[in-house]
Amino acid sequence: MFIADFHIHSKYSMATSKACVPEALDIAARQKGLALIGTGDFTHPAWRAELEEKFVPAEEGLYVLKADPPAHNGGFPNSPKTRFVITGEISSIYKKDGRVRKVHSLIILPSLKAADALAKRLEALGNIHSDGRPILGLDSQKLLELTLDVAEDAIFVPAHIWTPHFSLFGAYSGFESIEECFGNLTQNIFALETGLSSDPSMNWRLSGLDRFTLISNSDAHSPSKLAREANMFESALSYPAIYRALRYRETNEFLGTIEFFPEEGKYHCDGHRNCGVCFTPAETIKADGVCPKCGKKLTLGVLHRIESLADRPLGSKPKHAQRFENLVQLNEVIAAATGFAASGPRTQRLLNSLVKELGSELHVLREASLSDIEASGGALIAEAIRNVRLGNLKIQPGYDGLYGKINIL
What we know:
By secondary structure, the chain is of the alpha/beta class.
């Protein structure tokens, strides 16, 4: 079994850490417990040139760094090299059926050669130099057509499909169905990214999504955010095997996802951040969609949008539903247990010690015995991890761009 995180960004994307370079991403992936990560930002010429300089081919369609980066921060000098697959996100803003549409798409490609070819096609249509996640005035259906024309085995995934402002089903600029967006090319879509503010169980309320593989990724803008959501595979580690696992669920090679608690996502509930108003869908309807403090419109969240499109009740589970696990990042668990800052040096020292003694962060969170965790990190951290595994949490949900706050009981 291996774990993969496809949707990340490089230092060339807006609002992204300058530490998002291949070497740091490789080390962070090993520490997190990821065998495979996306490169992100394949459209950016400078990033693609850096990848071409630093990568060598590994298994079919995958790459590794030529030089093994020096381990630091408790890294894994003897672990297998992180595998990279070519990925990128594109923001499409265009008019369709009389409305402005804003849709983000995650594209996974079989080679750097395919990335060069697709980037060349896209460069003729817009600016791909200023942002690793380019904004193009290109219909999503046309983007899919171009992608498949370059690489028929590309994996085209509508990204974070419920985000209010930039997604397939977004409340403000999305569509009511996948077919409305992709038309006669819809059959070429076989995976959907659920996003941080929803989990598979929320998506199960729409029967129209049953045929799709639901994937989850970190959308990391810094190495430390890798694996906050990820995908589990029981397949060969190669591009063709990953394609097959995602497209043909009957192979049972895609095991499921590792998830945020969706309440932690920054668009889970409705609300108005400037006034500190956070509402459930029912409360929003009762308030006629306006903030009771200032009278401005509330931002509708993922929960509300799913409720509006759902054709099944809460708790529905389709026959072939995949499994998923909800986790909290290890640094946040340590911070909750100790009272230290989640990004502070004391938390990092404890995290490094746990990883060095027990294994990767995901192993510590998911599989390490509580007795081993207690011996390495102390009783408080062991108890906090136990409570995360049991779901003993109290979460103040996120809304209107604010992340939710988790209290581990």
